[in-house]
Amino acid sequence: MNSGSTRPDIRRAVVKSGQRALNEMCRQLAAYYANDVSNFDITRLTYATLTYHLVVTSVQPAPNFRSDRDGIYGQSAIPTPSSDDNPLSEGTLPSEGTLPSEGTLPSEGTPPWMDGVRGGVVVGAVGEAVSPKIWEEKISHLNPSVSRGYTATWYGNSESVPLKLNIPMLSKALEVIFAEQRPNGLWDRGQPIQGDDARRDIGNSYVFAFDLLGSLLTDFQESPHLIQPYLPNLLRSLEWAEENFVHPYPEGAGGWRSNHLKPGMPLAWCSAQVLYALSKFRTFLRNMVHKSVLSELHAAPISATSPSPHAWESLMDSELGPNITLKSVLETRVLFPLSGKSKSRQRWDNPAYSVTICSSMAKYLGWDFVTVDTASFLSDGLHSVASRMKYVFERLKALERCVILFDEIEEFCLDREDERLSMESRMLTTAMLTQLNDLRRQSSSVFVIATNRLRSFDKAITRPGRIDLQLFVGVPNFESRIQRLEKKLSEMGIPEEKTEQILIQVEDFMVAHWDQQLRYLTFAENEKFIGEVIDMAIAEDQITYSQLVKVLQRLLPTAMIQGPLKEEYEISEKLTRM
Q1: Residue 355's pLDDT is what?
Q2: Please, what is the Cα angle at 568 between 562 and 573, to 5 degrees?
Q3: Most exposed among 188, 431, 558, 570, judged by the fewest C-beta atoms under 10 Å?
């Protein structure tokens, strides 16, 4: 590529390869269903499918493009009209009477995998040549700008690319690929990769089946549901690898040899391809199990998106001690280390805020998030709690890079020294302790236990060494409340000068009433306080100290943390252990 090449040039080349791959996939599927054995080639179909899938899932849509109206075929990136005179921002229709050199639209009433392109002529299901004018008429039910854009996407010089995978056609291609697999787990060698195979080594002229298999498992590793139906096919390939391991040395060392070659010594390139495919098979199985567990537990698949620190940064912080806050400890001990290297952690939170904290941690890390509560262990009835507990933990241990929240499960962790407990309750505590230990040893996920009754837990669970962090999650601290008020004032469009005056007045008021009253307001109660301050800021030129006193007096009678609960809160503050 010369120095004058630009990024759009690269994108155009990649998109072009995706379009060619789609056309080749259509040709091969058409040949397969027409029993055209002279033109069907399993290797070409496989790598066309891989290229199409890779391009569509990798290339972002060009500016001013949108997907087709209903997304049936996934072939569109329709240019948005830029003006009445120039309805297409890119691409033009071929003149009437000419045939396109690339591309096809599915013929009406026929499945998309039965369409193809041969020799630059659009071919329908029965092989008739179709002119662009006919295709334009076939999609005339769309509005003019959309129908022209739909056609121009494939016939013009547009940089567009299918924004949405043609899942029916992709699934059909995979079905054909695995239907063509031999009983021994391999595939026919197909046509030579390039040139005349008579002049070159046969092993380098044909694709080794495990190269094909490794490529499939690599390209679809984030979409295991598309490959999952063919798990028996993958197992057949695994059996071939087990049965055809060549070990000519007494020490047991050995490898594999391509089935295209005559029997002999193992070869490095063949062995490397088999090992690569097997490693991808292992990754595929782990991803498949991971996604299956998340689905069964109704979890949030956050890892499908990029890590996002925004949710974490917007959380209100709370105090753990002098100059120590909850977020600073979690960042130092959990988030920052895990951003580089996975290592299991445990901590204890207040349930009122635990879901928000854990989901924000998962988004920060780009990990998945799952919640397990009492109902998860009681779904099979009280008589089956122990077996259900084992079942749930077996699935949790299969998860990787996941934040697991155990929300208020203290009924299964009660102190066994309490004489009031029944034998069944003591046995459940013992079972839970064993399962938590096993999950911790996995070192593949972060798990959090949230409770309001930490002092009721069995000492074997809470003692140092079994958990990494024991943190009290209290109400928002002073700085977080001021920042929250400032953000809300800004969102309401309060002038900057007036905002500064309000912040000074409210901060002075909070300092005077912090230790005995304001510091115990919960997040919801603080939101009410801020709401009334904002209402006064909109209605009044200035806010007085006496007005703030009246706001606080209206909140205190219904405040949550007061009386015995306030005493319990202050005791719990001292239970933090790092």
Answers
A1: 84
A2: 110
A3: 558
Q: Which of 551, 568, 548 is nearest to 560 (CA)?
A: 568
| Cα–Cα distance, 197 to 373 (Å, whole number) | 63
How far, in Å, are 248, 268, 330, 394 from residue 446 at the CA level? Answer: 45, 40, 12, 16
Q: Are 404 and 293 in contact (CB under 8 A)?
A: no
Full-prediction pTM beyond 0.70?
A: no
Confidence at residue 569, expressed as pLDDT on a 0 to 100 scale? 86
CA angle at residue 411 from 408 to 416, to 5 degrees? 135
pLDDT at 163: 53
- DSSP H helices, 201-331, are 202-205, 209-219, 224-227, 231-243, 268-296, 310-313, 326-330
Task: State the DSSP string of 128-196.
Answer: -B--HHHHHHHTTTS-HHHHHHHHHHHHSS-----SS--HHHHHHHHHHHHHT--TTS-----S-SSS-
Residues present in the chain in total: 578
Separation CA 357–CA 359 (nearest Å): 6
> How far are the Cα atoms of 108, 111, 116 from residue 151, in angstroms, in the given order?
14, 18, 15
- Residue 85's alpha-carbon distances to 66, 81, 145, 231, 314, in angstroms, are 20, 9, 11, 54, 47
Helix (H) or strand (E) holding 527: helix 523-539
Confirm if 107 and 138 have CB atoms less than 8 A apart. yes
What's the distance, CA 321 to chain centroid?
36
Q: How far, in Å, CA of 122 to CA of 136, rounded? A: 13
Please report how the helices 7-33 and 42-58 are oriented relative to each other, as an axis angle in degrees rounded to 10.
Answer: 140
DSSP state, 255? Answer: B
Give how far Cα 533 sits from Cα of 140, 182, 476, 537, Å. 58, 74, 18, 6
pLDDT of residue 128: 34
- Residue 383's pLDDT is 83
Query: 87 with 81: CB under 8 angstroms?
Result: yes
Question: Shortest CA distance to 296 belongs to which of 219, 385, 368, 220?
Answer: 368
Helix, strand or coil, per DSSP, at residue 419: coil
Cβ burial of 292 (10 Å; 0-12, 13-18, 19+) is middle
CB 302 within 8 A of CB 362: yes
Cα dihedral value 516, 518, 520, 524, nearest 10: 160
Note the maximum CA span of the chain.
97
Residue 229's beta-bridge partner residues? none
pLDDT of residue 340: 64
**Chunked mean pLDDT (size 10), the chain, 578 residues:** 55 84 92 92 93 83 41 33 33 35 38 33 32 39 33 35 73 95 90 60 77 92 87 95 86 85 88 95 90 86 75 85 85 83 46 77 91 89 88 92 89 85 87 88 86 82 78 89 91 89 92 91 91 90 90 92 88 82
